[in-house]
Write a structure and sequence with these properties.
584 residues, alpha/beta, 2 domains, TIM Barrel, 6-stranded antiparallel β-sheet, 8-stranded parallel β-sheet, Immunoglobulin-like
């Protein structure tokens, strides 16, 4: 992280509590991306893990059951082609290694089942029993990666593995509401499949199909509705009508690209942006399915512009793509989405104007998966906000001259520190136009210190700056790139008096050699202050025992290698952790 010295202050409040009834969205549990087993084969999964902790894996049925009952998850089954690719075991182990959660999306259809885009193996898809082979495949998949051990007599895989506890969320297909191929998959027919894949409703297990229904195989698993291509509610509403009062899914799922099928637009655009497209969707959802979460599992922008200036209808230059991706995650969060997945991890073909071919954070294999600007921007947001929880939207489309101000508030639950994401755009603009706004940000409390992190190309930590603070107002220059402003609250007499509170100052941070640590204790009590490396190894104990009322000073960092360390403070009533950066 480039420069700069700043002051970190935090106040511990022993009786602070969050409402247990309000779901908290942690950013690392919210930010996702689309990928597949190629991320393991081509060795870029580690790079992706710097940006996201959730992936939506395109799990092509034809790859994993190329012949009936030959399941190629195990690197054992060689039929029918005589080789074992893809090795899904290694992919899943690598995901676990990097702390990546997996939403697995089953789609496609092997040739032995048929050629229709509908995943039926018999009939016309109007009956649940028409989908028995797909239901069987998903049943075996859930048995393998779910949380429950299954009787081996019911397993059709060669290695008989079950209960690996690697996957909780299963998506049953992709865009069943398509209009661009034939035959159409009507909502009534999809409802038959959806109910059957949910818990086996409408079908019966037998010797050839021993495991049917996601929830029947693993009651703790979650069924994600196939991602809908349309933002209206007609198709989903018809699925519910055809389900006879049942809700055959646990998560609603939609896709949206900010485009008019000729050109792409910014995520806040008044005609093609997320808010205008999903305002009515959420009104319907809150009325009909108030307890069902909504995920956005596809959004994105291509970056390739051909020499003749032709491009896909989702095209945005690299800088705009980077801006739009960050702003999409933030806007979708404000609208009520509980997870969002970018499409896609890498370019399919970085020199192709076909839509979605160049929408990756990384370029294609031919160009060695080079990192785009959007990769560094998203890695910075993950580093800055990953552990933070969404608190509220402070301002949205707030007018400032010809521009608009956006401000989203986050809280780090470890120390109650506030982080604000702010950006601007020109009102009514179709795409980014270089808008800037000089802005006095008022966080609403007395400011002790503040610093801002600005995403930067080729830097996964961004640039750090110290803005001017005057009368509890922070002077910021907002651009179309979101910046992340950390604000520490000044301790006052009223909030320092109750017992069980501390004030801990760390300065400077980052530091070139060592930091000065001051601990203010309101009354005598047992306190432990220890420093740890990022892998949890104790580096130094600064205090361990009874601490008298007053201010106590320590130093930390001398002789240590550069890197990130954590100061942990524990008392009888409180515990907190703070990050310290040494630049030795």
């Amino acid at each position: 992280m480039k420069s700069i010295l700043f002051l970190i202050t935090f106040l511990l409040v022993s009786n602070f509590s969050q409402s247990q009834n309000t779901p908290k969205i942690t950013m690392s549990d919210y930010i996702g991306i689309n990928t597949n087993v190629a991320a393991y084969d081509n060795k870029y999964l580690a790079d992706l893990s710097k940006c996201v902790k959730w992936i939506r894996e395109y799990h092509d049925w034809s790859h994993y059951e190329a012949a009936n009952n030959y399941y190629k998850w195990d690197n054992i089954t060689t039929q029918p082609q005589g080789y074992t690719w893809p090795d899904h075991n290694l992919f899943m182990n690598e995901c676990r290694k990097y702390g990546i959660n997996v939403l697995i999306d089953v789609l496609g259809k092997p040739s032995w089942v048929g050629t229709s885009p509908i995943p039926n193996n018999s009939g016309t898809g109007t009956n649940a029993s028409d989908y028995m082979e797909r239901l069987e495949f998903i049943g075996q998949l859930v048995a393998r990666y779910g949380s429950k051990k299954i009787n081996t007599s019911l397993l059709e895989t060669a290695d008989k593995a079950s209960g690996l506890n690697m996957i909780k969320y299963y998506e049953d297909d992709n865009e069943p509401d398509y209009t661009w191929k034939s035959p159409l998959w009507t909502a009534a027919s999809y409802a038959k499949y959806c109910n059957a894949v949910h818990d086996g409703f409408g079908v019966q297990t037998d010797a050839d199909h021993p495991l049917l229904g996601i929830k029947s195989v693993d009651p703790d698993a979650k069924h994600v509705l196939a991602g809908m291509a349309s933002s209206d509610t007609v198709y989903v509403n018809n699925v519910l009508k055809a389900s006879g009062g049942r809700v055959p899914f646990d998560v609603l799922n939609v896709h949206h690209y900010c485009s008019d099928l000729a050109n792409a637009y910014s995520p806040e655009n008044e005609k093609y942006g997320y808010e205008v497209k999903y305002r009515n969707f959420f009104r319907w959802k809150n009325r009909v399915l108030p307890d069902i979460p909504v995920w956005m599992t596809e959004f994105g922008w291509d970056t390739y512009l051909a020499p003749d200036n032709k491009h896909s209808y989702t095209y945005a230059p690299n800088q705009q793509q980077a801006n739009y991706i960050l702003r999409s995650y933030l806007v979708l969060l404000k609208l009520g989405f509980e997870k969002a997945f970018l499409f896609m991890d890498t370019d399919g073909n970085s020199k192709d104007i076909l839509q979605y071919s160049s929408s990756g954070l990384l370029t294609d294999k031919a160009t060695k998966y080079a990192k785009k600007k959007s990769y560094y921007y998203l890695a910075t947001m993950q580093n800055v906000l990953g552990k933070c929880e969404y608190t509220k939207t402070v301002s949205y489309k707030q007018l400032s001259g010809n521009n608009e101000i956006y401000c989203i508030e986050f809280t780090n639950p470890a120390n109650s520190e506030k982080v604000f994401a702010l950006w601007t755009r020109k009102t009514g603009s179709n795409t980014d136009s270089g808008a800037q706004t000089n802005y006095q940000f008022v966080p609403g409390f007395q400011i002790k210190s503040a610093y801002a992190v600005l995403p930067a190309d080729t830097d996964m930590d961004g640039d750090t700056i110290n803005p001017i603070i005057t009368d509890d107002k922070i002077e910021l220059k907002l651009t179309e790139t979101p910046q992340f402003v950390f604000v520490s609250e000044r301790s006052t007499f009223s909030n320092m008096q109750p017992s069980g509170k501390f004030e801990l100052n760390v300065f400077p941070n980052p530091a070139n050699a060592e930091v000065q640590v001051s601990l203010s204790v309101s009354e005598k009590q047992m306190v432990n202050v220890s420093a740890f490396s990022t892998d949890g190894v104790l580096v130094k104990t600064l205090a361990d025992g009874p601490i008298e009322q007053g201010i106590h000073h320590f130093t930390f960092g001398a002789g240590l290698v550069s890197g990130v360390y954590f100061l942990r403070l524990i008392s009888n009533s409180e515990k907190t952790i703070r990050k310290v950066i040494l630049l030795n």
